[in-house]
Each structure stands twice: as C-alpha cells, then as structure tokens.
Amino acid sequence: MARAAGLAGAKCSGSASADLAGYAAAAPGLRIFSGNDANPAASMQAGAAGVISGRSAAYPEVYAALRRDPAEQGRLDRIVALGASIGRLKYALQVRGLVPGFSPAARMTVDPPGPDTAAAIAAQVAALAELS
User: For a tag on the chain, would you pick the N or C end, based on fewer CB atoms within 10 A?
Assistant: First the structure.
C-alpha cells in the first residue's frame, strides 16, 4: 500500500521514536526515520533508515563527524543537554553568523535562551572548530 501511494518512508517523532524497532517490524520494506536526533547510532540500531534532524541545521559538522567516528557522540550529548527549542537553534545559527541577529518572528514566536544557556551554546559553536 505504501508503494502504491508513493510513500517513501515514515518519520517517527516524539514518543513514537522510543519504539522504532516496533514500527520497523510492523512495516517491513518501509523506511522508518527517527525524529529523535539525540543518538543517531541508537536509532539506526533500532532499525531506522536515518534521522531527520532539527539540530543538524545548527551543528551539521557534529552529525557529519558522527558518521566517521562514533566517539563524537559525547559532543552531541553536550549539545543535546542544552535542551531542544527553536530559540536555541536560532541562537546557535546567530552565533555562527548564519542569521542576521536573533529574529524570533521568522515563522513562530520563540524565546531566546537565557544568559547561561546562551553562553553554553556559544561554547559548543566555538568547539566546532575542532572538527574542521
């Protein structure tokens, strides 16, 4: 049915991503992608065809490095610990010089990170130089 509908795959996000193996088993032949980008290797081991990552927009080098070296998971863990929010991703993009100032009105209202989180984000962005 998926092929007849032109469906290339499905994304499991939120609580559904905790049962990737179950979804993969229930739909043999259908590529299942995880919306949980905190541990791509664990998603792949659970049967995911890949990860659809929001964080990779701000930290693409980290996800590329993970493909070469699983030990880079520690770097991703530090980024994940900063919390998931559109505001924090936008701030990381601003620190990188990829957006002209923090503009929370882009698509939805978002709050910028507090000073401590902003400093932690800036430190993680600065650490990306190690991957170059």
Answer: C
Task: Provide the whole-model pTM.
Answer: 0.77
Q: Say if CB 20 and CB 48 are below 8 A apart.
A: yes
How many whole angstroms separate alpha carbon 36 and alpha carbon 13?
6
Instruction: Give the residues of the chain that fall short of pLDDT 70.
Output: 1-3, 100-109
Residue 98 is predicted with a pLDDT of 84
- The count of residues in the chain is 132
Q: 26 and 14, same structural domain?
A: yes
Question: Are 69 and 48 in the same domain?
Answer: no
Q: Which domain holds residue 122?
A: 55-132
Contact residues for 30 (Cβ-Cβ < 8 A; gap 6+): 2, 7, 9, 10
Secondary structure of the chain as H, E, C letters? CCCCCCCCEEEECHHHHHHHHHHHHHCCCCEEEECCCCCHHHHHHCCCCEECCCHHHCCHHHHHHHHHCHHHHHHHHHHHCCCCCHHHHHHHHHHCCCCCCCCCCCCCCCCCCCHHHHHHHHHHHHHHHHHC
